[in-house]
Every structure is written in structure tokens, then in C-alpha cells.
Amino acid sequence: MSLLQQLSEFKKSSLRKCSTQVTTVGGLQYVEFRDAKDCPDGETQVIGKTEYPYVLDLNPDLQVGKIRSNLFLGSADVCGDLQMLIHLGITHILNVSTECMAYYPENFVYSHVSMLDIPEENLLKKLEKCQVFYSEVKRVCGTLFVHCMAGLSRAPAVVIFLIMVDDKLTFEDAYTQVKQQRPTVKLNSGFEIQLKHWNIV
């Protein structure tokens, strides 16, 4: 039978029955049914509401990007792993999430620069504090670990800025270098625009 014949004889009823669980931005959870016997085509059934308007990922992200010999990037999950931090030779930790996490104050020097991961956040206003802290890390020959919560947008934006300043890189070159070491990096649009603008100025 030719493909054309198969397509012309196709019937929706031959599709496999399925259901999909959906979580909306408001946290509402429902199941969407398709061709199920117990529900008409396309009907939805509310199953609950969650506190979080996203699917929780309970697997820790312990992947760390080595950007420079004294500069590392990752997620907040790494901050709770003392052995990993010691293994990496970390001496200073810069937290750019909104939550203040200093699990081992006796082992590391901490700095907290609170940032929201939204395009409207004034990133450039916060970067000076980050640069001052990194300058101190270099002065004492230390090693810095920069993190936010997921290590995808805020912390990478800071690290990109730091190597742009230190190595006089363009945004594109700095972004490429950071992305190579931590492939999951994805800056929000506002951060990218601000860093490109700073680069031009």
C-alpha cells in the first residue's frame, strides 16, 4: 500500500488512546484526555493544584563549569556538597539568587548579591559588587564559585561579565566560552541585552 493510500484511509479512531498531565502557570494541574472511552474527545479533568507553577526537578544538578582556573560556575545544589567544593579548591562563594545560603561559613568566604531572574532586573547595577568580590578573590589567590538557583541565567550572566572585564572579551566570545563549560546556560533576554549594551559602551 502506498503512502498516499495509507493517508487517505487514515481514521482518527485508529490512534492510540492517551492522556497528558498538564501544569499551568498558575499551578493548576489537570489531565487532558484524547479519545478515551471514559471521557469525550478533548475533555479535561482537574486533579489538583500545586504550590509551584512548574514541574519540580528533584535531581540535584552537580555539574560544575570550570571557566578559569580560579572561577567556577554552577547551581545552588553544589553549595551543599562540602566535599565537592573542597575538591575543586573553592575558597570563596558568590550567591546571586534571592535566597541567602551560607552552609559552611567556617570553610568559605561568602558574598550575596540578590538578583531576580527577570528581564527587567537591573543587572548592571549589581555587577560592580560582584566584580569587587572577584577582585578580592584574585588578590588572595583564591578560587571563586558563582551560583544562583539553577545556574542557568543569573550566575552565568555574572561570570560572563567577569571574564569580559578581565580578558577584554566581546559578549559573544565570553558567552561562547561559558556555554562550552556549562552547556545548560540560557540567559534571560534582558540580561543578554544589558551585557551587549555594556560591551558596546
UniProtKB/TrEMBL annotation:
Signal peptide segment: none
Residue ranges annotated for the Tyrosine-protein phosphatase domain, each copy included: 63-201
GO cellular component: cytoplasm
Domain Tyrosine specific protein phosphatases: 121-183
SMART domains, sorted: DSPc (SM00195)
GO terms, molecular function: JUN kinase phosphatase activity
Biological processes annotated in GO: regulation of JNK cascade
Protein name in the entry: Protein-serine/threonine phosphatase
Species of the source: Helobdella robusta (Californian leech)
